[in-house]
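User: Fold this; tokens only.

Assistant: Input:
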Amino acid sequence: MKKKPRVLIDSFHLLQALTGIRTYTTELCKGLQDSDQQEVEYVIYPDWEWVNKTTFLRGKVNVFKKLLNHAVFFFWKQCCLPLIILFKRVDMVVAPDYLLPAIKFGARGLSVVHDTFYWELDGAYNPVWRWYFLKSVSLGLSRQSAMVVTTQYIAQKAKKHVSAQLPASVVYQAPKTLDYAPQPLDELGIPAGAQYLLHVGIFERRKNLGVLVKAFALLVKEDYFQDFYLVLAGSRAVGIFHDDYSKLKKLIKDLDLNDRVIMPGFVPNELLGSLYQKAFCYVFPSKEEGFGIPVLEAMNSGIPVVISDQPALMEVGAEAVLTFEQDDEEGLYKALLILESKEARAVLIKKGRERAEQFSQKAFINQFHAAVLQQLHS
């Protein structure tokens, strides 16, 4: 009997992953683990559930932990993974975090390219780490490799910045399942019954949250919105090259909004569903994204979504969102005014739920499995 092709999913990066890549990898591993396909044997190393629970190397860490993280990460990718490929007779290795090992002992490679920030935003990263990252990606992408990308927008960019020769399959990911059991939000500093606009995400400069704060300053001058709050939930960015938190705090103070803008920090999953569901709307003013998971999380939560005209966000949101031009706080302010209408809100909520249904975990796993089969048989 012919052996099934063995496909190794590398989950090691869950030790330190924080945002979208963490969601992508956990939903991928969970979905593949539960899938009933017969063509491929999926093997996940290390145990993704255990790795996902540890916080030792995740978030704001000291210099020692950073150096340890880089050393362990290099050793895993370039030493441990090749040995696992060899002794487990792996036919393909999948890197949900871009980085395939340089040595694969004949195995095919599949790299998930979430965005091209490292290639384009050179001033936003530590130059030493950026050089190492780009060099490692390049070494890992051999002739027997292929790419999975998150949107058509990233497919075009990956062809330009990562590899013009390697095939790229667009696979739309699924958001994590949130708990919508009603939870009080007082521990997040949100008054009971408060109306609020919401943004969830890390405080990176590319998120362009200053535009949202300025638009909110205009909005609260309107009678309908005069008692509203703005909730900016999420962790500070890792490293001085990304972080926009201090600049935002100053802007909020300068606009005299300290008592109207709530910054609760990282919100645990058990509260996230309620945080979305109780919001008036979700606002995503980002200048650069590879996908935009919060768009789908907000749609699934039954609230309207307002996004910038950033291509990946528009590809995900389609006709189910309101849009405004990037960097245009007045345009965002005018889009938010539309939501005074109950009819407009109801239409957006209905369209949002219908749109989000197209990004189910089943659809995600089926598309990913098809990309794996295509690469195995190419």
